[in-house]
Amino acid sequence: MENTTNQQNEKIKVKEKMETNQLKGILQRWLNAIENNEDFEIQVEGEKRRIPSKAMKEGWINVEVESKHGENEFEIELKWNGEANDTLLQ
């Protein structure tokens, strides 16, 4: 669990560990949003966020697989331009 806010740089980072079934549901909803050209809403550590549909068109996706000191990591990261507060849902 990590939740970091830096007012000076407007950097907001939220992480959450989840079960495989929870991840499956999130990925299925994300895929549906991509296929239907819709915004994607997600809640991580109690914080609701909206990923705009334009992020899938205008953004870029990084896929990373890393092995270091006996630990392995697989990460999918979507990046796009916009203000962090534009993604926050009330």
Q: What would the average pLDDT be, to the nearest integer?
A: 85
User: Low-confidence parts, pLDDT < 50 over ≥5 residues?
Assistant: none
| Total separate domains | 1
Side by side, the strands of the main sheet go: 1-2
Spatial shape = globular
Describe the structure.
This protein has 90 residues and is α+β, with helices and mostly antiparallel strands. It has one domain. Helix content is 24%, strand content 42%. The chain contains two helices and six strands; from the N terminus they run ββαββαββ. The strands form three sheets. It has a two-stranded antiparallel ribbon with strand order 1-2. The protein has a two-stranded antiparallel ribbon with strand order 3-4. Strands 5-6 form a two-stranded antiparallel ribbon. A hairpin with a 4-residue loop joins β1 and β2. The longest helix has 16 residues, at 20-35. The radius of gyration is 14 Å and the shape is globular.
Spell out the blueprint of helices and strands.
Blueprint: E1 2-6, E2 11-15, H1 20-35, E3 40-44, E4 47-51, H2 53-58, E5 60-68, E6 71-79
Antiparallel strand pairs: 1-2, 3-4, 5-6
Quick description:
The chain is of the alpha+beta class.
Task: Describe the structure using short key phrases.
90 residues; alpha+beta; two-stranded antiparallel sheet; 2 helices; 6 strands; 24% helix
